Amino acid sequence: xxxxxxxxxxxxxxxxxxxxxxxxxxxxxxxxxxxxxxxxxxxxxxxxxxxxxxxxxxxxxxxxxxx
Length: 67
Hints:
Layout: E1 2-11, E2 14-22, E3 28-30, H1 38-47, E4 50-57, E5 61-64
Parallel strand pairs: 1-4
Antiparallel strand pairs: 1-2, 2-3, 4-5
């Protein structure tokens, strides 16, 4: 599986989750949808053939994902 990261995006007065993969040459693949729940985003990334590695949570603090 290719590595991806999970990050938050603004949504109304809150936020939602998306995943993205940066491939060779800097080409970015990003989820078309945003997800209300973090685990829904992780599952969507895995279903698309990506494995989340690092996560950006609100406040831009990096945390490791161990799954």
